[in-house]
Protein 1
Amino acid sequence: FGKFFTVDETILDDIEAALLSADIGVDLTEELIKKLKLVKKSESTRLNDILKDELKTLIKPKQHEVQNVKPRVILMVGVNGTGKTTSIGKLSSLFTKQGKNVLIAAADTFRAAAYDQLKIWSVRSGVEFLGNPQGKDPAAVAFDAARSAVAKNKDVLIIDTAGRLHTKSNLMQELAKMKKVIKKVIPEAPHDVWLVLDSTIGQNSILQAQEFTKSVGVTGLILTKLDGTAKGGVVLAIHKKLNIPIYYLGVGEQLDDMVEFDSEKFINALLD
Amino acid sequence: MLEQLQNSFGKIVKTLRGEGKITESNIRDRMRDVRRALLEADVNYKVVKDFIKTTEEKAIGVKITKSLSPGQVIVKIINDELTALLGKQKYNLKTASTPPTIILLTGLQGCGKTTFAAKLANHLKKQNHKPLLVPVDIYRPAAVQQLEILGKQIDTDVYSEKKKVLKRIKGAVSFARENNHDTIIVDTAGRLHIDDKMMKELVSIKKTFSPDNTFFVADGLTGQDAVNTAKVFDEQINFDGIVLTKMDSDARGGAALSVVKATGKPIAFIGIGEKPEDLEIFHPDRIANRILG
Ligand SMILES: Nc1nc2c(ncn2[C@@H]2O[C@H](COP(=O)(O)OP(=O)(O)OP(=O)(O)O)[C@@H](O)[C@H]2O)c(=O)[nH]1
Ligand SMILES: Nc1nc2c(ncn2[C@@H]2O[C@H](COP(=O)(O)OP(=O)(O)OP(=O)(O)O)[C@@H](O)[C@H]2O)c(=O)[nH]1
Ligand SMILES: [Mg+2]
Ligand SMILES: [Mg+2]
């Protein structure tokens, strides 16, 4: 009976295809389509706007950060290759432009040339750099970095860590240990643990967010590689399940290619 | 998920006693479960649609015999179809008639090309080849250094001349000939399929050197975007095989099916870790099982 008064099936099929292709995921897509099925045929021209409004309820508008600790310690974590090191380079430049005195630390003692990679970024953004080129103990680097940040009166300390799969418990424990060691120097640190997610990755990002949250507590998300064709829709499901704010978006490989998350812009981009 | 499928299929046909046929109505609902499972496994939406349609057609009208339960029959059809799609061709590394054999590695940013270069060199060494690593990522900070360090770790020569990309490869080919390296592995910078300048660079490498093997390296965790990127890379450089990395994760790996279906190219290798020895030859049945969960 209601069939004659609700939106056309083919329109809903197209919307479903768009949502799935954006990595929104099966569950969330089903929920959204269910809601759209109730829309009257007379409203069908407004369908896209109704969908956007629904998506907007899933995510808080512009996310804000806490700013009043010194040094503010940010630990960057995530699985392999998502863009942690590059993002630190970009953020250090961003924070410097905001007038902050930044120190970045290479606590990835595993990956070949990780030290060199971050050092180059520190030169590009003009910030101080700390690391141990022969180092084998990431927690030791984190410890030294925290000490140095306090001693040198830094505003922000960003610590780079090695990429690691959330399924490797020994590596997740290594991160938890790094947190403990940092706390020995600054009890409330790290004030932020930011999980860097690659927007080309699918539903596994949800498992990543869950596991990293369990092991080290994630306080914010950074979504990278949005200059590609991937939409990163999976962050909606993550935000819905874990309520973690999204702070920045990586939109390229250069120093200035990082923007603050804007939910309106993000949702519009998801659907075009 | 295979177990769940078997049980739910078993339920539908419990009502059919002894011998019976699988009908359209009783299979349609179960196919919805398969569709959900494949989408959750990151198989591309369009690829899922085609797969479901083909499998449904194959299953309808299949006779149930006393030797196998209906659930088992349907699951076997799905598994066989998936395995066939994934493993139609096995990849055999081509060698050049006049050395060195040139292997070109391409792919998006961060998918694991540099790590795979070391793994491949290690693999070839074990087969008594003498590979030469050639880093040509002159853009990303410390990319060349990264491969130099990995080369040292596996006691393999790395050729790195402070020149632009094409000159580097040219120099590497000469060096390989002079030093009896039978294979060179060219590690390129990660790039977006929509970056015209960088895609042009790849096309010119292909045109200038006609690599014997060109691999598209893809992150095993990739979502729906896998089809977009693979298609464009294939259209532009017609790669020979696919390498799927980070399969030591708990990702279901649906990208495997998406990329194979979209390009018709075979999966050659699987990356299962960060160390040089973490390389596996592709087994379609194992990946099929994993995608179905
Ligand atoms: N196009 C694009 N590429 C990016 C972006 N962020 C990072 N990259 C690239 O992604 C690749 C991986 O970046 P890294 O910073 O090394 O990633 P990572 O997380 O530190 O890697 P591991 O330390 O090995 O886990 C590099 O080629 C970067 O240039 C982005 O926003 N857009
Ligand atoms: N767990 C796991 N990690 C891997 C695998 N392959 C590569 N990695 C890791 O993924 C990250 C990126 O690897 P790279 O080899 O630098 O990737 P890439 O494609 O060369 O990156 P770009 O040159 O920046 O585009 C590193 O941390 C690697 O150790 C794998 O099979 N499993
Ligand atoms: Mg890094
Ligand atoms: Mg590389």
Protein 2
Amino acid sequence: EEVLIRGVAHNADVAKVSLLGVPDQPGIAGSVFETLGTHSVNILLIVQAESHEGHNDISFLVSSEMLGQVREDLEALADKIGASKLLVDEGVGTVSVVGEGVQRESGIAGRMFSSLAREEINIDLISTSNLMISCVVAEDSLEQAVQAIHREFLE
Amino acid sequence: EEVLIRGVAHNADVAKVSLLGVPDQPGIAGSVFETLGTHSVNILLIVQAESHEGHNDISFLVSSEMLGQVREDLEALADKIGASKLLVDEGVGTVSVVGEGVQRESGIAGRMFSSLAREEINIDLISTSNLMISCVVAEDSLEQAVQAIHREFLE
Ligand SMILES: C[C@@H](O)[C@H](N)C(=O)O
Ligand SMILES: C[C@@H](O)[C@H](N)C(=O)O
């Protein structure tokens, strides 16, 4: 069953927030996002990968214009949950391949990631669902990233 | 604009594969998934979060029945890309909240994660898209996790 790639999406107006070294215990992730929920923060991506020695990192993207509003709250939140560090990076962007079942075929992810590699663009974060494979890359590389992925899938 | 939660999905027939300590350089992610692509491996989730000191971890889920077929290849792959460790965990499952725009509202993620926390279920991996928030938890906790999230959103 062939996967149809419907499009390539991208977003430059995002900022990455990473809470590093949070305790890997029930309630931590809930606390982070309930707090953000009270500020009606628009969240564009959440990734959490493998924990290490009782700690983990939680990364998420917010719209750039929203970052200013929540920055102080993020500092307080980082303290509250016991994060070892709060990292905020406004110089990022997302590029995504969209289509029904995209993540099923590992070949599609491979082609997407390799097309970025050929441009020497480093992949910062990766998040997928059945409809979309998203990569976070440096904002300065975003346009080049979008073109490379467009060439790979839509030409 | 209210987000409509359409459903709670889950999958117990998955195995987690994590490549730990891979070089954080262009081409690594491409190499992993192109290799898996040659084996027609069905990938159900890919997450990569923040890198540390020039290295990162890449985690993905494969269907349980497929794990046997690819296990040797995974060992070879881990060596090829210079991973410090290959971790395979068959005792996991996924639970997801599905609905248009779910990740936009941080409150929804907060409620989902907190409902797991109240059951003292630890969240292993998190991946989101505009349509779905997915958590990987221990397979032994999956049924309880699904019920808790169902109660939170659909009752
Ligand atoms: C790190 C964080 O996700 C934690 N494991 C939790 O369940 O909340
Ligand atoms: C770690 C891996 O994702 C690497 N940054 C790459 O671009 O392939």
Protein 3
Amino acid sequence: LITVRHLSKTYHMGDVEVHALRGVSLEIARGEFAAIMGASGSGKSTFMNIVGCLDVPSKGEYLLDGVDIGKLDRDQLAGIRNEKIGFVFQGFNLLSRTSALENVELPMFYKNVSNAYRRDHAMEALKIVGLEDRWHHLPNQLSGGQQQRVAIARALVNDPSIILADEPTGNLDSRTSVEVMDIFQQLNEKGITVVLVTHEPDIAEYTKRNIIFKDGKIRKDTHVERS
Amino acid sequence: LITVRHLSKTYHMGDVEVHALRGVSLEIARGEFAAIMGASGSGKSTFMNIVGCLDVPSKGEYLLDGVDIGKLDRDQLAGIRNEKIGFVFQGFNLLSRTSALENVELPMFYKNVSNAYRRDHAMEALKIVGLEDRWHHLPNQLSGGQQQRVAIARALVNDPSIILADEPTGNLDSRTSVEVMDIFQQLNEKGITVVLVTHEPDIAEYTKRNIIFKDGKIRKDTHVERS
Ligand SMILES: Nc1ncnc2c1ncn2[C@@H]1O[C@H](COP(=O)(O)OP(=O)(O)OP(=O)(O)O)[C@@H](O)[C@H]1O
Ligand SMILES: Nc1ncnc2c1ncn2[C@@H]1O[C@H](COP(=O)(O)OP(=O)(O)OP(=O)(O)O)[C@@H](O)[C@H]1O
Ligand SMILES: [Mg+2]
Ligand SMILES: [Mg+2]
């Protein structure tokens, strides 16, 4: 489903170059449940942004479902982002002047659906993360963990086939983390491919594959057998 | 040092009321090292914002070093915030259009010091968190964990007597988390009072007191004996 070959990303800042990714190659099959781990600054978010079609590599190839992403134009990329991929950002990236409900509805505005459908579907997603009675709150009227859950609900609302989640439990207490991981596990059991970045081994335990990044490369890639 | 009595905070949103804090009373002595834990939405950040003089309670008292904070005017509050307290925000709260160095320098602009002193002192703080060669980067040119470390450096730069840190390791891998907790431990050994919010038991292990919040109240308060 996801194939990357020699993926590299260099940021240029004046005369300084930051080599965020230095040749990453791997394949993630449909229906996998993988955790990406690694030190701060090792390239995890940069990798996720490229796989999520939010950024382009400096070198290398990325094929999604056999399609060469590097050959697509902006509209085609936006289409894939909205149809196939649900993305939970490390910093949540909620719109600060709109309610939790409107934030969750946002990915559905590209679809040809009624307002009622959009609202009901968004409320469903908020219910899944336990926030339906906060639908009218603005992000700054929500706790850190509540904002993170709104970001998770938004990633689920278009029924994506791939979920990319960058530190989805970083602001959640253990009980809410378990609830969120149960959600991801249930989605994975329905066939959805889930890739999440985490630095917590307890969270990685839920997954069946651990990919470790170090200095912009893959250091270790372990498939875990679970009974 | 920190005394709160019957601290309450209610948010009014139209005709809905959110009782974020429902009568919190406790004392934190000078030089303590405490962890605040509790479920998402249980009132931890609200409590920290009041103790950090960033917000006012709806009811109750807050005495800092014997001074009734409720009786101070805005300038006096700002003075205390800048002189006595170093605050690490759950969402980092970095200025997006200024460099890491300038973000760390910010608390020193209220002081009557030279530009050179300010810059050198800020570089020192960045060095402590391992980011001195990123001083010129903007926040969106830094990874999540790097942004968190800039927020930590900013909290240290005015040599505060109290550090309040809201989820300071939420975006950090285990090695960087250990480095940050070592920093807090060293500061505490020098006599600085450290109160941090965390949902990770491994982080709470570094502290000598665990305060558990539930539904806007203190559920449990345990002093830990360490050999
Ligand atoms: N400005 C606000 N307006 C309305 N409600 C708010 C506001 N800020 C916080 N709240 C609500 O107050 C309650 C406590 O929030 P708080 O941020 O203190 O929780 P928390 O314990 O820090 O949670 P987390 O672990 O998720 O960060 C939550 O229900 C939250 O939605
Ligand atoms: N827009 C940018 N411009 C310049 N450098 C960048 C930019 N974005 C990221 N970087 C740098 O690229 C490297 C990798 O960043 P990335 O965000 O992928 O790390 P990460 O593994 O997600 O870290 P964390 O665990 O701290 O979130 C870091 O050194 C970071 O400073
Ligand atoms: Mg990251
Ligand atoms: Mg909080």
